[in-house]
């Protein structure tokens, strides 16, 4: 029968090959009907020696019959009901008749003395069960690419690209192990039923823990606990037939294609006699040869071509290396740098971006480093930065975050084009001055809680106490964003907050490894944890948003919090567009924005505050000046919005801290087509890095005192300090400038004002200066400060 198997599999492979070639190397396909056709073709050839085309009608009829039978099984069983002339029963009888006629015809024609009943049985079971085994094998191997690679290695080692012969098929080890495991997880027949004619004793059945490396009997310890083909005298007669067919088909598929799940695939096993994929099995197929060529093209040829194009224009950097580019040196140097604290200086770039700094020093401010196979061109020239960030025609989009990072939040920061414009339009009003004013009581409450906590601690310790203020300030900004965004207390949002921090750490680990497409589907510890965390965050935020939706529907006012304002603005947008929900944000999108605010709102502002307190401890003269100003303008009262806008020294200090310790160290964009930038031409497929930290520490831009803390430079505002150049980017620049910039500045002013009103502070001798990055610049060993009550 092997030649018949081979012919059917060859037809499938050449059909898929043709589709792939037409679509240039890869295509998306629902493999479920394809595999049903394959197994139908096989059984047709082996049972009748005819082609699948001749048997097509039989298969169509049998599929219809199976569906009707399932309907019948799913309804209550009434003895004798099959004799009633219902529509279903009539159709079933018609089908039965037609199948018999067709089969008899085939049998007569070929003069085969086969019993008609047995043939039809074999026909249906042979086709259905083997096709489900094959479809789940392809789905499972897409979910577990490491096993797909192992199986392909085995197949290519044994058969290379030849047609498999019978003996060689029996030499396969990994392939049958996989098939058995798929049969264990997705047994085509979910239930075997028998009846008892008399009382029967049944022993215990224990499921095996071991798997199939040493065969089925070893895996099951000789127990009857693995019976995809049934067991005993009535064990499936076609067991070996099915296994040989499955081995042949899988071998030939693995020889020719690599495959992965399409994003459109929905995992929904259900039963229509056998376990089948309810919505099909959408798989992306890649030709193995084309795939290898494509991989080579992506990982070697393209980067080398880009390297030449950049070098021709004088853009140099460390040489491109296969697979990792410069990632290893980059992270190696970062690891080394963060292995010890630094002296008390603001020259932090060598500790935070050692590799980027070294590259700029060696190859110039317009240079390139390799992020895997992608070149990242560093740009530090203010005019070029302006061109990139003004993004006039949307030609410098953001770098797409890798899928794992998208787990943290998508939202505005990750959108492009019309979707970005729509969201920005809806969200802008929630952050204007008027709305910020209404948020002041929330900021005040959060800061008051912090102040009274510190007050209590100091009183207990008689006048002063040492404290790691880093977690304290993270709590403060978490509380503030929780109140301002959700109108709820920090306590309610605490879990979201913890989870998002955890998620950021996992994401950073993911970014630091090379991106392997499909890797996120592997059930690694990190991936499982990330998925669980996402689920939990999603549930918590959804709960808050739903509660609010109910409150709004019940006529409650929006409270002036961001969620309420966002929903109001969204409602307005929908109304202005004649109620078209398409033009507003969906509930899912609102939830994503909440997650984003929570993340960016807390992370960034807490780092601004922690470095401000560290720096003011290192420069007590500025602490005194700032306190004098606060006491003069606000006194010891609760700060009012107008008073905060009259402060001068405090914002000068905050700007200088943002210059020296920008929470976000680098802004990245990419080119999707060739772009002219000043005198250079950037080819498509290049990333552009604007290293905020290095730009803020550039002597040529800021002068000889670049690494000194000198808030004076901001006395006449940012434009004077930068001489109207785009060289101060803590909040980015251009149309995508930080949405929460004013929010963050009001919050920081409020917090600093209230801290200065109540306490003086200095560095503890236990403090070790060690700025490092976990998304933002943070104090690696905490920020131990001695607080005194004033
Ligand atoms: C000190 C505090 C903050 C800093 C330093 C900061 C920094 C930044 C930077 C550099 C960008 C631009 C990134 C790019 O162009 O690739 C950005 C964007 C953004 N920030 Fe902030 N941020 C801060 C606080 C906040 C707060 C409190 C919120 C919200 C409550 C917020 C919401 C956003 C959003 C939504 C975007 C994306 C804007 C867009 O793409 O249109 N940020 N932020």
TrEMBL record:
Region forming the signal peptide: none
Cofactor(s), by name: heme
Cellular component aspect of the GO annotation: membrane
Subcellular location: Membrane
SUPFAM superfamilies in alphabetical order: Cytochrome P450
PANTHER family: CYTOCHROME P450 72A11-RELATED, CYTOCHROME P450 FAMILY MEMBER
Stated name of the protein: Cytochrome P450
């Amino acid at each position: 029968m092997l030649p018949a198997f081979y012919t059917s599999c060859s037809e499938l492979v050449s059909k898929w090959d043709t589709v792939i070639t037409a679509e240039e190397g890869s295509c998306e396909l629902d493999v479920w009907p394809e595999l049903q056709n394959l197994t139908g073709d096989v059984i047709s050839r082996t049972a009748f020696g005819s082609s699948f085309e001749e048997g097509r009608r039989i298969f169509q009829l049998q599929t219809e019959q199976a569906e009707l039978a399932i309907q019948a099984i799913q309804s209550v069983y009434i003895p004798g009901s099959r004799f009633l002339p219902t529509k279903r029963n009539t159709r079933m009888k018609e089908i039965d008749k037609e199948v018999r006629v067709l089969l008899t015809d085939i049998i007569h024609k070929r003069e085969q003395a086969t019993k008609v009943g047995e043939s039809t049985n074999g026909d249906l079971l042979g086709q259905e069960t083997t096709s489900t085994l094959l479809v789940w094998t392809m789905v499972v191997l897409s979910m577990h690419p490491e096993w797909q690679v192992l199986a392909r290695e085995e197949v290519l080692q044994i058969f290379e690209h030849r047609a498999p012969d019978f003996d060689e098929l029996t030499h396969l080890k990994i392939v049958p192990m996989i098939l058995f495991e798929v049969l264990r997880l997705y047994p085509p027949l979910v239930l075997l039923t028998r009846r008892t004619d008399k009382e029967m004793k049944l022993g215990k059945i224990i499921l095996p823990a071991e798997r199939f490396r040493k065969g089925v009997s070893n895996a099951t310890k000789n127990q009857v606990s693995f019976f995809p083909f049934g067991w005993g005298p009535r064990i499936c007669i076609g067991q070996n037939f099915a296994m040989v067919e499955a081995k042949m088909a899988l071998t030939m598929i693995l020889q020719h294609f690599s495959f992965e799940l399409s994003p459109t695939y929905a995992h929904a096993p259900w039963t229509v006699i056998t376990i089948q994929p309810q919505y099909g099995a959408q798989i992306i197929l890649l030709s193995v040869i084309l795939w290898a060529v494509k991989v080579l093209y992506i990982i070697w040829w393209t980067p080398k071509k880009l390297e030449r194009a950049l070098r021709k224009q004088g853009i140099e950097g460390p040489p491109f290396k296969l697979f990792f580019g410069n990632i290893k040196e980059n992270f190696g140097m970062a690891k080394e740098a963060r292995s010890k604290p630094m002296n008390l200086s603001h020259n932090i770039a060598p500790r935070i971006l050692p590799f980027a700094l070294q590259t700029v020093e060696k190859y110039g401010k317009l240079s390139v480093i390799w992020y895997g196979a992608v070149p990242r061109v560093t740009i530090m020239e203010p005019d070029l930065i302006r061109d990139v960030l003004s993004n006039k025609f949307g030609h410098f989009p953001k770098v797409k975050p890798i899928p794992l990072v998208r787990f943290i939040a998508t939202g505005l920061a990750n959108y492009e084009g019309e979707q970005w414009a729509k969201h920005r339009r809806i969200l802008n009003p929630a952050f204007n001055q008027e709305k910020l004013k209404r948020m002041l009581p929330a900021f005040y409450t959060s800061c008051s809680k912090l102040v009274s906590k510190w007050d209590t601690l100091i009183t207990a310790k008689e006048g002063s106490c040492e404290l790691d203020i880093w977690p304290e300030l993270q709590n403060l900004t978490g509380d503030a964003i929780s109140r301002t965004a959700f109108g709820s207390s920090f306590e309610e949002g605490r879990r979201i907050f913890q989870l998002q921090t955890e998620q950021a750490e996992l994401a950073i680990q993911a970014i630091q490894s090379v991106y392997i497409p499909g890797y996120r589907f592997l059930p690694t510890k990190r991936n499982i944890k990330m998925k669980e965390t996402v689920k939990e965050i999603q549930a918590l935020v959804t709960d808050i948003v739903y509660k609010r939706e109910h409150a709004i529907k019940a006529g409650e006012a929006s409270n002036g919090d961001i969620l309420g304002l966002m929903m109001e603005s969204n409602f307005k947008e929908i109304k202005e567009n004649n109620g078209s929900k398409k033009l507003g944000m969906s509930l899912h999108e609102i939830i994503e924005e909440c997650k984003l605010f929570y993340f960016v709102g807390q992370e960034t502002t807490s780092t601004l505050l922690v470095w401000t307190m560290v720096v003011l401890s290192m420069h007590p003269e500025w602490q005194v000046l700032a306190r004098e100003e606060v006491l003069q303008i606000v006194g010891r009262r609760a700060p009012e919005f107008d008073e905060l806008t009259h402060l001068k020294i405090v914002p000068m200090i905050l700007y200088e801290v943002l210059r020296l310790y920008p929470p976000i160290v680098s802004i990245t964009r990419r080119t999707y087509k060739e772009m002219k930038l000043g005198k250079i031409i950037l080819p498509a497929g290049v990333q552009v890095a604007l290293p905020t930290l290095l730009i803020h520490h550039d002597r040529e831009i800021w002068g000889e005192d670049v690494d000194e803390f000198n808030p004076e430079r901001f006395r006449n505002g940012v434009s004077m300090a930068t001489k109207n150049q785009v060289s101060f980017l803590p909040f980015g620049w251009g149309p995508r400038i930080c949405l929460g910039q004013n929010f963050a500045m009001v919050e920081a002013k409020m917090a600093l004002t209230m801290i200065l009103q109540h306490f003086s502070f200095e560095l503890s001798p236990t403090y070790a200066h060690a700025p490092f990055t976990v998304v933002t610049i943070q104090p690696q060993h905490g920020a131990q400060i001695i607080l005194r009550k004033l």
